Amino acid sequence: MKIAIYPGSFDPPTLGHLDIIERASGIFDRLIVACMTNRRKKTLFCTEERLEMLREITKGMAGVEVDGSGELLAAYAKRRGAAVIVKGLRAMSDFEMEFQMALLNRKMNPELDTLFLAAGDRFHYLSSSAVKEIGALGGDISDFVPPAILGKVKDVICQA
Ligand code: PNS
Description:
Layout: E1 3-8, H1 15-25, E2 30-36, H2 47-58, E3 64-69, H3 73-80, E4 84-89, H4 95-108, E5 113-118, H5 128-136, H6 147-159
Parallel strand pairs: 1-2, 1-4, 2-3, 4-5
Bound molecules: 4'-phosphopantetheine (PNS).
């Protein structure tokens, strides 16, 4: 069975994330969407909220599991029996950091490959940070966030 992990902060999940989940789940037998810790970022949504939103948007998707971990991704992948990390790649600006992480993860876990999926053309400009900034300044974020979690995302952004 081919198991892959799609890791991220998902703060909050966007339509760009959902696009990658849908496409990757068609490639692998099992896709673990893993809400991980990014020590470079302070999140707006707590871990439980991010997990809940991921569960909501992946509800009913065959072969997709949502999980959370504070481990190193390389160690988590080994523990879960996953041989592939899936990452969405937007513009070239993502590349340097993603390339570094892919190489470091492979150094720490030589059985682990990283597979980059080009972001869908409708989502190249989209990021969780942009969603939070637009929402906080009163902009319409309904084109950027899955409808099932739009209310929750708006509530948390407005309360911040
Ligand atoms: O959505 P993000 O914030 O770009 O995702 C980054 C993430 C969470 C995948 C990355 O920070 C990560 O892998 N965190 C787990 C801890 C880890 O393994 N860090 C070393 C990466 S080389």
